[in-house]
Amino acid sequence: MHEFARTSQIVEAVLSEAQKQHAAKVTEVEVEIGDLTFLGLEQVRFAYKILTDKTMAESSKLTIKQIRGRGKCENCGYEGPLQYLDDPQFHITIPTFNCPRCERPLSISAGRECILKRIRIMK
Amino acid sequence: MSQIVQGEPGEIFDIELDENLKRANDLLADENRRQLRKYGVRAVDVMGSIGSGKTSLIEHLVRLLKGKYRIAAFKGDLTSEIDSERIAKLGIPTIQINTGKECHLDANLVRKALGRVDLSALDLIFIENVGNLICPADFPLGSDKRVVIVSVTEGPYMVVKHPFIFADADVAVINKIDLADAMNVDTHKLSSDVRAINSKTSIALTNCRTGEGVDKVASALGISSVS
Q: Do A36 and B164 touch (CB under 8 A)?
């Protein structure tokens, strides 16, 4: 959901930075998206292509780094990836926010990001 | 005299930005939270799909708690005031937030609604989100507690099909339990699905038509209904 709105934010930030740097062209853009957000990567790429059309960032390379969900346990000190429960009956994996070691609730430490990491420009 | 290094035309530059694009909403949510704390007002965000019983739950919570607390309700919808009129009949300040075409409330809309009520004259605010189990999860509002309500008429897989909304759910309400047999839905299975996803989430079974179990929702939220 909201890929178009989020991607316009990305493109706006890219273009405003490029302008500030007096760039002639944006060649590469790198973003990080957490897999606990509701952003579909396919839709982000699609929106990016449309939104950068006829701009300084036209046909620039978009790299999306997916950040896996991670959690921290206050109880036993576990810090690591969230676990996924497999349900073969429905071919789905269900994330769990419980600690894999002690079953207590985890606090989420990664996986909700939507970050514009860096851009590469040509002057 | 310092030396100057400059790029030549056609030269490539890498610029590190590290710009958090979710920051705009998160900052407004923090501001809402500060504002509410300042006045000692507790806010509860109620999320659930269309027809799951969000408005009925709030109606019963207001009936149960209004003798003891000063309550207001914000009601998010795309359009119309149908539901907010239902809540306003209970004699509490009610603000309709029409999102137009947006499928969720965001911190900015809630900030505007907070500006329309007298926070010094309130103890509790119930914020009913737009009927949707996906988008509201990405937009914190600044509330103290988040409630997710599902009902048995939505079928037996509502919880496992929408696991991410339970990441921040303090309370899960399983509604329309009077219809569970007719729908052939096992409420224990729905409860154990919630626990498997997030053991932090308290679970309350309700029939929001009669008000059965709504006192359990209040106590799970840490709001005492006994004066």
A: yes
Asked if B15 and A2 come within 8 Å (Cβ–Cβ), the reply is no
Report CA-CA distances (Å) from B50 to B72, B203, B210, B220: 22, 20, 19, 23
Domains, in order of start, for chain B: 23-220 (3.40.50.300)
Least confident of A54-63, A79-88, B68-77, B123-132: A79-88
- pLDDT class of B227 with cuts at 50, 70, 90: low
pLDDT at residue B211 above 60? yes
pTM: 0.86
Question: A85 and B196: CB-CB below 8 Å?
Answer: yes
Parallel, antiparallel or unpaired: strands B171-175 and B12-20: unpaired
Backbone angles phi, psi at A99, to 5 degrees: -70, 130
Q: What is the pLDDT of residues B48-99, one digit of tens each?
A: 999 999 999 999 999 999 999 999 999 987 777 787 788 889 999 999 998 8
Q: Which helix (H) or strand (E) holds B56?
A: helix B54-65
Q: How far is CA B24 from CA A111, B103, B107, B137, in A?
A: 18, 18, 9, 16
- Chain B residues whose CB is inside 8 A of the A38 CB are 134-135, 137-138, 164
A3-68+110-122 CATH fold: hypothetical protein PF0899 fold (3.30.2320)
Among residues 90-109 of chain A, which lie with CB inside 8 Å of chain B?
90, 92, 94-98, 103-105, 108
Write the secondary structure of A2-62 as one string of H (helix), E (strand) and C (coil): CHHHHHHHHHHHHHHHHHHCCCCEEEEEEEEEECCCCCCHHHHHHHHHHHHCCCCCCCCEE
Residue B12, pLDDT score: 86
CA–CA distances in Å: residue B34 to residues B28, B40, B144: 10, 10, 11
Token representation of residue A106: 């985890």
Ranges of each domain in chain A? 3-68+110-122, 70-108
A123 touches B22 (CB < 8 A)? no
